[in-house]
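Deviation from plan, reported transparently: iron/sulfur cluster complex.
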Amino acid sequence: MLPTITVNDEKCKEPISCRKCLLICPTHVLGLGTDVGPQKFREIDPSHFIVRAVRFDKCSGCMDCVNVCPQNAIQVSFSGGDAR
Amino acid sequence: MCDWCEKYGNGYERWYFNPSNYARRLYKIRKEEAEASGAEANPQAAGGMAFVGRDFLEARERGDMAEVERTKQQIEGAMWLTHFGQVITLEEALKITDIMYPISLITCACRRSMEGLPDDENFTCMGMGAGMYKWERWPDTYRGGVHFLTPDEAKEVLAKLNKRGLVHSIYTFGTPYLAGLCNCDYPDCAAIRTAIDLEIKILWKGHYVAKIDPELCNGCASCVHRCQFRALSFVPNRNKAYIDQLQCFGCGLCATECDQEAITLVERAGLPALANVW
Ligand code: SF4
Ligand code: SF4
Ligand code: SF4
Ligand code: SF4
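Because the crystal trials were delayed, the predicted structure below was used instead.
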């Protein structure tokens, strides 16, 4: 069964320095991206980085990411509905 | 025959040995095409991570193979025009360092994304060709900077990465312009993961297939951890390694680890059942 995994970007402010969820996930589901496209001549500000469940097809529902997140930013739901 | 060799080989043994596929002319075509369509010719924007939507995964889950096939072909069609890769052996990668200039060591975008890996631990990717001279335009694509390498330095780095267990593959950025020599592993490489987990062919199998000589294999099992493609396993009852040749991507990593020389790479083209399995 496929999960619905959401990350609250307001709560997850510094994913690059935190990355706890990325490293704990046994099936490497989560990944970092940005909410702006590629920026010419400019480094992207760390505040624009976001965490997304890019490989959610491999999520087992172990909830390790939910429990490790110091900001309580991640929700994983298997109800089939919208976790938000 | 490999489609890409047929289309872009121009008499060379492999399409990635054809120097014109690295030529500045192609870089320019790609850059101008992208800019004409309003996009910036950023290497990452050209392909980035293969994006597979929830619809595809849901179709797969409910067993709607027609829908799965349709989406797959749509993704592959788009990626084969812009950004896809093919597995090569260490030997082939070394040969490319003499065809291609400049070569630079850069950070890996996939591991940056999937591990949040700090730049100084992440120099495993190689960018090649004219576009590299303009790397400073895209500070985020080239996070951590760029180290330009001599061909000998590049060979040294490739050998070291092979020892570490990373698979070499070559990537287009606007096909057939070749500009990336990646050194990857499962599951954090987007191409390997998409090819293996979702069976979407944005990474083509290489020109070789590995084969074990059961007489020479002594059952030491030191090759087993080298395979990133779920092709290599171990048969306890026979005390021998086993290679699923239909699944093998021909990277050669298992062979470089076997000190009994029990694993050889044979030409895919020479095996009737595999000649068209890419
Ligand atoms: S619930 Fe477990 S498997 Fe799913 S994303 Fe979180 S850590 Fe990974
Ligand atoms: S653990 Fe929480 S705060 Fe840390 S990167 Fe992941 S989502 Fe963000
Ligand atoms: S490394 Fe060579 S000898 Fe050892 S198990 Fe693999 S094939 Fe056999
Ligand atoms: S069996 Fe050997 S050559 Fe084939 S994909 Fe695995 S490591 Fe590479």
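The radius of gyration of chain B is 19 Å. We consider this an acceptable substitute for the interim report.
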